[in-house]
Design goal:
Layout: E1 9-11, E2 14-17, E3 22-24, E4 35-37, E5 51-54, H1 56-66, E6 71-74, E7 81-85, E8 88-96, E9 104-110, E10 113-117, E11 142-147, H2 159-175, E12 179-183, H3 189-197, E13 204-206, H4 211-219, E14 228-229, E15 239-242, H5 250-255, E16 258-263, H6 272-276, E17 280-282, H7 290-300, E18 304-310, H8 312-321, E19 326-328
Parallel strand pairs: 3-4, 4-5, 5-6, 10-11, 11-18, 12-15, 12-16, 13-14, 13-15, 16-17, 18-19
Antiparallel strand pairs: 1-2, 2-3, 7-8, 8-9, 9-10
Helix pairs in contact: 1-4
Length: 349
């Protein structure tokens, strides 16, 4: 097989290698005769599969989010493991993706070649998860990569600057007698916000939906600082970390005076906070920005690149302009909804 040939099928947003009976990030439940790799535990990447390959943190998070029974093949990062497929053996290695705790890229090697599937990833370091490390995949034959922020207008400011502005927002709200409410996904973004606030000296309360996932982070060695559970009687001199739907909940009205902010890469759009109905929007993202996407491809240097999610067509065109052989697996334009939340087919920012 040459690098010009596509060694996989792209079915309902998932990568399928039928000769290996292997699925990568499929949304549809797979049976006991196939393996499904779960790159991380966000809801748009999981389903009730019978057999899964994943990291230990993802396994813990999956049990919390889905429950049920399944055969789990838990792999350590960098551990090359042999599997038997219906038409031959293959090796699979999980590499840290830097997206959320336990998130993994997938390196698949078989007689036909080698493929790296990124799942969601970022190159910027975060205290809330393992740093991205894809060195073992350099020079793979095919790269399938997510391109959520695949346009040049999505270049994030330095993380230190974003954090400083977010903390200033919280302090200003508290000084005015208002509760600062930070909105972010219960898995990943909420724990990152807890890490950001850990050394700030500010008191923190987390929504009940955040707590069980935060405990798993702590069990895996992530330091989230001190925080308490948000209850109806919680004092308002706290920074509150809540899921996006809290903005429409009766609990918000019961708080009294408050200021809302959303943490999302979509904050790069000037209209984000107005569409979201919040007072501020901060570009704190767990995805790679435009420059990181380009740097990643330059370092991996695969003969063939496939882009998916987000601005896939735009980014594939950018790669072709840079001399790479690139093709988009999806062509839909990226759209964003309230609170910076993109459509269900696209990963959150």
């Amino acid at each position: 097989m040459t690098s010009r040939q596509r060694p996989f099928r792209f079915e309902r947003g998932a990568v399928h290698l039928p000769e290996l009976a292997l699925w990568l990030d499929t949304h549809d439940s797979r049976g006991a005769d196939e393996w499904a790799v779960v790159t991380h535990a966000h809801s748009d990447h999981i389903a009730r599969h019978k057999r899964v390959i994943l990291t230990e943190p993802t396994a813990r998070l999956l049990r919390q989010r889905l429950g049920g029974q399944r055969e789990e093949r838990v792999l350590r990062f960098g551990e090359r493991t042999e599997f038997s497929g219906p038409r031959g053996d293959f090796a699979l290695t999980l590499l840290p993706a830097g997206h959320i705790l336990g998130s993994a890229m997938v390196l698949v090697e078989w007689s036909g070649g080698s493929l790296l599937y990124t799942g969601d990833f970022r190159l910027r370091a975060s205290d809330a998860c393992e740093p991205c490390d894809f060195q073992l995949a350099r020079g793979c034959d095919w790269l399938v990569m997510e391109t959520t922020f695949g346009r040049p207008e999505y270049v994030f400011p330095p993380t230190e600057q974003v954090i400083a502005e977010l903390l200033a927002f919280c302090c200003t709200a508290l000084a005015a007698g208002e509760a600062p409410v930070l909105l972010g996904w219960t898995l990943g973004k909420a724990q990152e916000l807890l890490c950001v606030l850990a050394e700030s000296g500010l008191r923190v309360a987390a929504h009940e939906a955040v707590l069980p996932l935060a405990r798993i982070y702590e069990q895996c060695g992530v330091r989230l600082g001190e925080y308490e559970a948000l209850t109806p009687g919680s004092p308002t001199d706290r920074v509150l970390i809540c899921p996006p739907n809290f903005a429409q909940s009766p609990q918000l009205a019961a708080l009294g005076p408050s200021r809302l902010a959303v943490a999302t890469g979509w904050a790069m759009e000037s209209s984000c906070k107005y569409r979201s109905g919040v007072d501020a929007a901060f570009p704190l993202s767990d995805h790679a920005d435009f420059n990181e996407l380009i740097e990643f491809v330059r370092q991996v240097r695969p003969p063939r690149v496939f882009t998916t999610h987000g601005f896939a067509a735009d980014f594939a065109a950018t790669l072709r302009d840079l001399g790479f052989d690139a093709e988009a697996l999806v062509n839909a334009e990226q759209l964003t909804l309230s609170l910076g939340v993109p459509p269900s087919s696209i990963a959150p920012g």
